[in-house]
Amino acid sequence: MKILIINGPNINMLGIREKNIYGSETYEYLLEYCREEAEKLNVEVSFFQSNHEGALVDAIQEAYGKIDGIVINPAAYTHTSVAILDALKAVSVPAVEVHISDVSKREDFRQISYVRAACIKTIAGHGIEGYKEAMEVLKEHITKGIA
């Protein structure tokens, strides 16, 4: 089983940016954590991060026919990108939306998620552990063949 973890803008700045919101773990730590958890789940994991919306759309499109599930933290594009929503819908690869912080308790504009409509679940406010939870959800979803 192959899972692609996609991270949007500024996720590469973990450990530097707003530690009171996102914690002190670095992006490199996040990747290592996800690799270790994927190994425990017996799934293959790959990563993509970009600060550019079109690059995220390209990564989603390239997943078609090659990836079994997507964990996506679109970051700020969560609240603005119909293009990412459309890409997720186009490829029909099961996806789980992840947010490190609890976006429901933040600014009003963060209450809106365009990508949620194309995802089987949203996990928010669980820190980087949310990525593990997302991989677990995808593995169960794919294994059971839930459409």
How many strands, which pairing sense, and closed or not: the largest β-sheet? 5 strands, parallel
Q: Using the coordinates shown, work out and report the CATH topology.
A: Rossmann fold
- Count of all domains: 1
What would you report as the Rg, rounded to the nearest angstrom? Answer: 14 Å
Give the distance, in angstroms, between the N- and C-terminal Cα atoms.
Answer: 16 Å
Percentage of residues in DSSP E strands: 15-25%
Helical region count? 5
Q: Which of globular, elongated, flat, extended, rod-shaped describes the shape?
A: globular
- Give the mean pLDDT: 92
Secondary-structure content class: alpha/beta
Write out the strand line-up for the largest beta sheet, numbering strands in chain order: 2-1-3-4-5
Would you state the CATH class?
A: Alpha Beta
- Could you spell the SSE succession in H and E letters? EHHEHEHEEH
Percent helix, as a range, is 25-40%
CATH superfamily: Dehydroquinase, class II
User: Would you identify the CATH architecture?
Assistant: 3-Layer(aba) Sandwich
Overview of this protein structure:
- The chain is of the alpha/beta class and 147 residues long.
- The chain has a single domain (2-144), classed as Rossmann fold (3-Layer(aba) Sandwich), CATH 3.40.50.9100.
- It contains five helices and five strands; from the N terminus they run βααβαβαββα.
- It has a five-stranded parallel beta sheet with strand order 2-1-3-4-5, with helices on both faces.
- The mean pLDDT is 92.
